[in-house]
Amino acid sequence: MLYLVTSLFFGVAFVAGQECNFGDLETFVGFDPEKYLGTWYEHYRSPNPEEESYVGCEFDQYFKSDIGISVLSVAYSKPAVRSFEVSSGIIANYTDNTFFLQYFNDPTWSSEYTVLGTDYTTYSIVGGCLGNSDPLVWIASHEKEMTDEGKESVVAILEKMNLNIDDLETVDQSFC
């Protein structure tokens, strides 16, 4: 009934002999996972086959637990299936601009994620590869709808990376 999907934080990985990276860009520095606690609703993402069936609600909840900082990722499957999928895991380790999510019940999303930008409130931009040679990007905020302020910040950061928000899929949050 519930299944976990991770939407946030992806990093540099090697895939089939090809390096997946974000090119020469200034990534966010000073990532603090304790400031990242709370629910992050996904608003935009790179098109990718792993998430094609998820529509209507997708979020990650980060919280302190006995084993560190845990994450609960939730996604609503296409209306034909009409179910929530939930995965659970932890931030296994982190650096100044990356963190590794280890999911206990869904290894597809266990990966290192790169923090491309966040103000810990109105927006978060993370990237990763997940078996792709081209990096994927996820954009989220603490609200079910992204504020104009958050979107403006995201657009400015994406422009520095030669990315356009219009090239990303919009994630509907109407079933959350």
From TrEMBL:
GO terms for biological process: lipid metabolic process; response to reactive oxygen species. GO terms for cellular component: cytoplasm. Residues 1-17 form the signal peptide. Keywords: Signal. The keyword Zinc-finger does not apply. The keyword Transcription regulation does not apply. Residues 32-173 form the Lipocalin/cytosolic fatty-acid binding domain. Belongs to the calycin superfamily. Lipocalin family. This is Lipocalin/cytosolic fatty-acid binding domain-containing protein. It comes from Diploptera punctata (Pacific beetle cockroach).
